[in-house]
Design goal:
single chain, 404 residues, alpha/beta, Nucleotidyltransferase, domain 5, 2 domains, 15 helices
Length: 404
């Protein structure tokens, strides 16, 4: 019998998204998220067939956020379930799967241990992903847990794309290579773009821009990832909410030597104190950065301009890798929500057939439906596609359990 009642847990560096899918009745779908975990402005939003809820939560950690999610599922007013025991399986978004996991996997002790070991590669994500599994196991001890890995979609990268210019033994003996992330999102939006354009995914060359607190770009040829901006960890590539993105490695060793900082302090600086937050001195949230930039805050404008500059650089580079581009897709909280970022990041690419219609760009409902923001006659379709990592994860969970 096919799995019908699936809970999806999608833990980010400072957020927890969740979704409940009933494959027999799409009207029962419930979604929610908890934002700014660990801060004083932690907020829960919840939407389902029995109503919506929005509330601020006390300052707490990921365990507290998970407990708040569980309590809402059986809430008498808005909860979709009478009991958590109605859930048949739980799918977990896992950021880093290393080379071992090229597909989703049913969680056992060995799988969980490997996920937690890979926390050294994704320190903002894998530890909370592993914690989410443990919390779900405790809440639902007899329910299958399935791990769906961000890195799996990028296992199609060729060696020339995933190897660094380092001594080969560092890869062969220690696994140092580029992995790529946001795989579920890039896979989902590329499939949705193909449907929207009335084309087969196999016929398309797509550049997918997943832009949020974490951000990455992916070159997708025939439905396969051939290059992506993130690397060994989610810290490579674009400037992000608190991550610096691409950086000369000598900056790190110089700072450690001259400032006397150790590896832990350096990692915190690069992953938690940099990006929009570090450049602007204001916020890791692009919405706040844009407001401040519009009000004349110079460092906020610098952070915005630098982000778009780096994004445009990757779009151009991936056009070269693909040889052509049929569609550019914007997704994620920033990609779906910021007309400014979309316009500014493709500025100066008109010679390559990439244009944005300003009226379409301003009016597109980025969180509700797919929208084309390029002119109809432009050779490259520029699209805003709402991502649905949770739906992609649920599909992978159902597929994995049916094959198992």
């Amino acid at each position: 019998m096919p799995t019908q009642h699936i809970l999806v847990v999608n833990g980010g560096s400072s957020s927890l998204k969740y979704a409940y899918f009933d494959s027999a009745d799409a009207a029962h779908t419930t979604r929610g998220q908890i934002e700014c975990i660990g801060g004083d402005d932690t907020r829960l939003t919840h939407h389902g067939p029995r109503g919506s809820a929005e509330r601020f939560l006390p300052r707490g950690d990921y365990r507290d956020a998970f407990a708040a999610m569980v309590s809402l599922f059986t809430d008498p007013q808005v909860g979709p379930l009478r009991s958590m025991q109605q859930i048949e399986c739980v799918g977990h978004r896992i950021v880093h799967g290393g080379e071992k996991f090229a597909a989703a996997a049913v969680v056992d002790d060995a799988v969980l241990a490997e996920i937690e070991r890979l926390g050294a590669f994704a320190p903002l994500h894998n530890p909370v992903n592993g914690l989410g599994i443990r919390e779900a196991m405790q809440a639902l001890p007899n329910v299958p847990q399935v791990a769906v890995f961000d890195t799996a979609f990028h296992q199609t990268l060729a060696p020339e794309a995933y190897l660094y210019g380092l001594p080969y033994a560092m890869y062969a003996e220690h696994g140092i290579r580029r992995f790529g992330f946001h795989g579920a999102s890039h896979q989902y939006v590329s499939q949705q773009a193909a449907l929207f354009l009335g084309r087969t995914i196999e016929s398309l060359a797509i550049i997918s821009c997943h832009l949020g607190n974490g951000a990455s770009v992916c070159a997708i040829e025939g439905g396969r990832s051939i290059d992506t901006s993130m690397g060994f960890t989610p810290g490579e590539g674009l400037i992000m909410g608190t991550r610096c993105g691409d950086i000369d490695a000598a900056v790190i060793t110089h700072w450690m030597r001259t400032q006397g900082v150790d590896a832990d302090r350096m990692e915190s600086l690069l992953t938690k104190e940099s990006g929009f937050l570090g450049m602007s001195g204001l916020s890791r949230d692009m919405r706040e950065i844009e407001k401040a930039a519009a009000a004349g805050h110079e460092r906020a404008k610098l952070a915005l301009d630098a982000f778009c500059w780096r994004l445009r650089r990757y779009i151009g580079a991936f056009m070269a890798q693909l040889g052509r581009v049929d569609a550019i897709v914007f997704t994620g909280g920033i990609g779906q929500g910021s007309a400014t970022v979309r316009r500014q990041s493709v500025d100066r690419l008109q010679a390559f057939g990439i244009k944005v219609d300003e009226e379409r760009n301003r009016s597109v409902r980025g969180f509700e439906a797919i929208g084309r923001i390029s002119p109809d006659d432009a050779p490259v379709a520029v699209l805003v596609v709402p991502t649905d990592e949770e739906r992609m994860i649920a599909d992978e969970v159902a597929k994995t359990l049916s094959e198992g």
